[in-house]
Amino acid sequence: MPQSDDVLLEDETLRDGLQMEQRVFSLEEKLDIYTHLKNSGIQRIQVGSFVHPKYVPQMADTDEFIREIKNQGNDGPLLTGLILNSRGLDRALNCGLSHLSMSVSISNSHSIKNAGKPAAEALIEMSHLIQNAMQSGVVVRAGLQCAFGCVYDGKIEEQAVLNAAEKFINAGASEINLADSTGMANPQSVRYLVNQIRLKFPETPVSLHLHDTRGLGLANMYAGYCTGVRTFDVCSGGLGGCPYVRGASGNVPTEDAVNMFSVMGVATNIDIQDICATVAGLERILERKLPGRMCSILASGIGNCGSKQKEEN
Question: Which positions are annotated as active-site residues?
Answer without folding.
Answer: 242
